[in-house]
Design a protein that fits this description.
single chain; mainly beta; 4-stranded antiparallel beta sheet; Thrombin, subunit H; 32 strands
């Protein structure tokens, strides 16, 4: 089973298995050493994620018990990709690791030369990941294609700034945003750019692909939909906040995006017209939403008011809400057979709901 950040290599945030219903209850929580900004990934009855305190974790899905813990020299915000019994993950030292999922033993590592915050995608035995861009303003970055079995680099694509964004892989292209404000479409075989699309600010969120379109947000306060083959603009939607660093989900002809302006939105994929919105605000400023995911007609996501939520994907009606602690920076959720797993960010915990 292959599993990764945003569910799959399209990064559309769509899971085959539904989450908790008709309501959610906390099943277990696990204390993490360091901040838990690495979104958890579920496969083979394990929950896998990293921490900023240089550890990778594998927990039993059913109980939250620790299966193994792997120590690195530096921490990570990268989310692992799991495939054929292996974990692939990068860290802030610039190393990409292959770890045996059953035992936590290292198979190989490769030094990619720059810090990695990007979450790997794996497709047909090749791992794709970005490097550089962990800190704004740093120069230089690359997209890498690495053989999953050997750890040998097949190609690298260079840009003037870093790839904090995570790559989507579709239609023979590796698509990834860059801190230079562009979305790059790189040929999967040659590592050469097929097209680029400029925006008005950094692109740190992850693009999502569906129905010949690639959708992504930029810190210029806009959500873009482009033809995935040509890079031509299909539509643009402007939000109310200059910093949009979340990743969209795409399901059943709709695009779902959380923002720092207090809104979770559903847009028509074909036209970019707004279908519904949810608004949350605090005493002095709007709340923000994490990157949502979708399964079986339900949208799931966290909010900076400390809540985890489920909404009807067609109407935006709230189906359930649960408050956990005071976390303000949820990760992107992962779903599995009526379960939802999510990281609490700076509250240093990972949670499983059923």
């Amino acid at each position: 089973m292959t599993s990764m950040f945003r569910a799959n290599a399209l990064r559309d945030g769509v899971f085959k298995a539904a989450g908790p219903s008709p309501r959610a209850e906390l099943k277990w929580q696990f204390p993490v050493e360091g901040n838990a900004f690495s979104s958890p990934v579920v496969s083979e009855n394990l929950v896998c994620f990293g921490s900023r305190a240089r550890y990778l974790y594998a927990l039993e899905l059913s109980s939250g018990q620790l299966r193994w813990k792997f120590e690195m020299k530096r921490g990570t915000s990268s989310s692992p990709a799991l495939d054929e019994g292996w974990m692939y993950v990068g860290n802030e030292e610039g190393r990409l690791y292959a770890i045996k999922l059953a035992t936590g033993q290292e198979q190989w590592r490769i030094d990619l030369g720059q810090p990695i915050a990007s979450s790997p995608a794996i497709v047909e035995g090749v791992v794709y990941v970005g490097s550089g861009g962990v800190r704004a303003g740093t120069r230089g970055g690359h997209l890498h294609a690495v053989d999953a079995q050997t750890g040998q680099e097949r190609w690298r694509f260079s840009a003037e700034q870093g790839f904090y964004s995570s790559p989507a892989v579709a239609h023979g292209l590796v698509l990834c945003g860059n801190r230079d404000g562009q979305l790059y479409a790189v040929d999967i075989e040659t590592g050469h750019a097929t097209w680029t699309f400029p925006t008005g600010s950094e692109v740190v969120g992850t693009p999502a692909v569906a129905e010949e379109l690639v959708c992504f947000a930029s810190c210029d306060a806009k959500l873009y939909a482009l033809n995935v083959h040509s890079g031509q603009s299909h539509w643009t939607y402007e939000t109310r906040h200059s910093l949009v660093d979340a990743s969209p989900a795409i399901a059943a002809g709709s695009v779902f995006l959380g923002g720092k302006d207090g809104y979770l939105r559903a847009l028509d994929l074909a036209t970019g017209r707004e279908q519904w919105q949810v608004f949350r605000t605090g005493r002095s400023e709007p709340h923000s939403f994490s990157s949502p995911v979708v399964a079986a007609g339900v949208v799931y996501g966290g909010c900076s008011d400390g809540t985890l939520n489920a909404w009807d994907a067609q109407t935006g009606q709230e189906l359930w809400q649960i408050t956990i602690g005071t976390t303000t920076n949820w990760t992107s959720p992962a779903l599995a057979d009526g379960l939802l797993c999510i990281g609490g960010g700076s509250d240093q915990r990972v949670y499983l709901f059923h």
